[in-house]
Amino acid sequence: MGLVIGMDEAGYGPNLGPLVVTATVWEVPGRPDEADFWKLLRTVVVRDPKSSHKKLHINDSKAVYNSARGIGPLERSVLGVLRGVGHHPGGWRELSVLLTGGQVDLDGEPWFTGRDLPLPSTRHDLCFDELANRWRECCTKSGVRLRAVVSDVVLTRRFNSAVRDAGSKGVALSRITLELLRRVWDPNGDEPTLVIGDKHGGRNRYDLLLQEVLDGVMIFRRQEGRESSRYRVNRTELRFEPRAEAHLPVAFASLVCKYLRQLSMSLFNAYWREHLPELKPTQGYSTDCLRFRDEITATAERLGLAADDWWRER
What's the start-to-end Cα distance of the chain, in Å? Predict the structure, then answer.
């Protein structure tokens, strides 16, 4: 038996809303670097939803979610898997506590304070219990087990502080991701482990950043380049690759991140529309964030909100 850990993020690019980082931890039969999740879970998972509407669509979040389809397909995949491992969050707040371990102050920003969203947030054609049962059956037969899903929701003030401390947005993301990794990974563990994550801002070298979270554990560089950066730490191989969502553990992490962020942005937009009913909602990206900033600035000042509370500097 081995472990595979997949890591991804959502919300790195926007100037509004939280950054969400997630790690998923999977037990697999045999060597972790030989595990083909798409084959092992083929009876319940599909990468292309056109091939079967009765399976869970797992892929890069950009392939599962878009504004035209809405949050439904994304929610179906995330809640379907979570229910398959025994979790039944009834709302955004319960889901956030489940995934972050209660380590994020959900009342740290006014659009979250005392607020919640019921889950599921939309109607679905298939019963989640049916999806969960099929997930459990497939995992029992294949020997795959989702051991943990752990997220970090980085609110605006913390994000700005992390970027200032790091001196760059990319380094801040790497540090936040590797700190989350250490919550689910024992570098001195006995189980053979494969860690896979997306590259951060085109970075090729990660050993110095790994040193910051490894407390002196030896790191061996195996490869550093555009296509892959690989390291060995005891019985763990760590890989940082572009398009890492080709690996199912990373793809599912991507879906969890996007789902948490979309729910958070729903609360964010609802708050501002309470004060400005005609305000058009935003997802916080560069194509729209300046318009939104200009429209809420006067209201934010009236409410006593500093820009550092809601506007990400980079």
Answer: 42
Q: How far from 13 is each of 21, 142, 204, 218, 286, CA to CA, in Å?
A: 13, 37, 19, 33, 8
Which residue in 267, 259, 268 sits closest to 311, CA to CA? 268
Hey, what's the torsion of the CAs at 37, 43, 48, 53, to 10 degrees? -150
Does residue 261 contact residue 10 with C-beta atoms inside 8 Å? yes
Give dist(CA 268, CA 272) in Å, integer: 7
Total residues found in the chain within this entry? 314
The helix (run of H) or strand (run of E) holding residue 265 is helix 248-275
- pLDDT per position as a tens digit, 98-116: 999 999 999 999 999 999 9
Cβ neighbors of 134 (< 8 A, separation 6 or more) are: 43, 44, 84
| Alpha helices by DSSP H, 42-86 | 61-64, 72-84
